[in-house]
Design brief:
9-stranded mixed β-sheet; Nucleoside Triphosphate Pyrophosphohydrolase; two-stranded antiparallel sheet
Length: 249
C-alpha cells in the first residue's frame, strides 16, 4: 500500500476502528457482495445501514455479508466460478480447494438473501439441492446461484487486536442477477434498517463510510473502468510486521 493510500485509510478510521485494546485473535473467514446497477449513466452500488443497537458497527453503512458457514461450499449452483476468480480466491490460504473457493462466493450470496431478501442467481423449473436450512429459500423459489457472474474485487484482513477480526472476500455482481425478492428482511427491527442505491462517483460525500468500505469501493470503480475482467489483479489488504500493506492476488 502506498504511503498516501495508507494515510487515507488511517485518516478515515473512526476511533472504534483504531481501538487496539483487545486480545489478539485469528480472523474468521467472511464474504460480502457489492451489488452494482450499471443500467444508468453512473454505476450505483447497494449499501445497507446497520441497526443502531448493534454492538458491532452500529448505524454504519455496509455491504451485505457475513461469516462463511461449513455447508456453503456444498450448495448446488447454476454455474461455477470463473477459473481466474477461483485461482485468486485460493492464493495464500492454508488448505486450497475448489470447494473452498466456491464456499466463499456462495456465503456472500446466502448472506445477501438473509440480510436483504435479494436472491441472486438463475430461476429454473426444478429446485436446487440445498445442504442446510439456511439455503431453503433458494429451493422454495427454485433459484440457483450463478457463480460465473461473480467478480472478486478485494480481500482484507482486519488488523490485529480489534474487537472482531475477519478475513473478508469482497465480491461484486450486477443487479441483473437479482432473480427473486423477499419482502420484510429490511426494517426497523432487522439487522439492516434500510437499503440505499448510491452512485459510485461521489459516494463518500453522501454518507459516512468505514475506511475499508471506501477503499474497496475505489477498487470496484477502478475494475469497472479497466474492463471488469476476471483476470485483473485483486488487492489484498492486511498488516505485516506492524505495517498496513496492499498486495495483489
Amino acid at each position: 500500500m502506498s504511503d498516501n493510500h495508507g494515510k487515507r485509510m488511517t485518516d478515515k478510521m473512526t476511533s472504534s476502528e483504531r481501538d487496539q485494546s483487545f486480545p489478539d485473535s485469528e480472523p474468521s473467514d467472511a464474504a460480502t457482495i457489492m451489488l452494482i446497477d450499471r443500467a444508468g449513466a453512473q454505476p450505483k452500488v447497494l449499501l445497507g445501514r446497520r441497526h443502531a443497537g448493534h454492538k458491532f458497527m452500529p448505524g454504519k453503512f455496509v455491504f451485505p455479508g457475513g461469516r462463511i458457514e461449513a455447508q456453503d461450499r456444498n450448495m448446488q449452483a447454476a454455474t461455477e466460478l470463473h477459473p481466474d476468480t477461483q485461482t485468486k480466491l485460493l492464493e495464500r490460504v492454508a488448505e486450497p480447494s475448489a470447494e473452498l473457493a466456491r464456499g466463499f462466493a456462495l456465503a456472500a450470496v446466502r448472506e445477501m438473501a438473509e440480510e436483504t431478501g435479494l436472491l441472486l442467481g438463475t430461476k429454473r423449473a426444478d429446485a436446487p439441492k440445498t445442504p442446510a436450512e439456511d439455503w431453503t429459500v433458494f429451493a422454495e423459489t427454485k433459484i440457483y446461484p450463478d457463480l460465473a457472474q461473480m467478480h472478486f474485487i478485494a480481500r482484507a484482513i482486519t488488523p490485529p487486536r480489534r474487537s472482531r477480526r475477519y478475513d473478508t472476500r469482497f465480491f461484486t455482481a450486477d443487479a441483473t442477477a437479482i432473480a427473486h425478492r423477499i419482502d420484510g428482511k429490511v426494517g426497523p427491527d432487522a439487522e439492516l434498517v434500510e437499503l440505499v442505491w448510491l452512485p459510485l462517483d461521489g459516494i463518500k460525500e453522501r454518507i459516512e463510510l468505514l475506511a475499508i468500505t471506501e477503499i474497496v469501493l475505489a477498487d470496484l470503480d477502478k475494475q469497472i473502468k479497466e474492463g471488469f475482467s476476471h483476470d485483473l489483479p485483486v488487492p489484498f489488504y492486511r498488516v505485516r510486521s506492524g505495517k498496513r500493506v496492499r498486495e495483489f492476488l
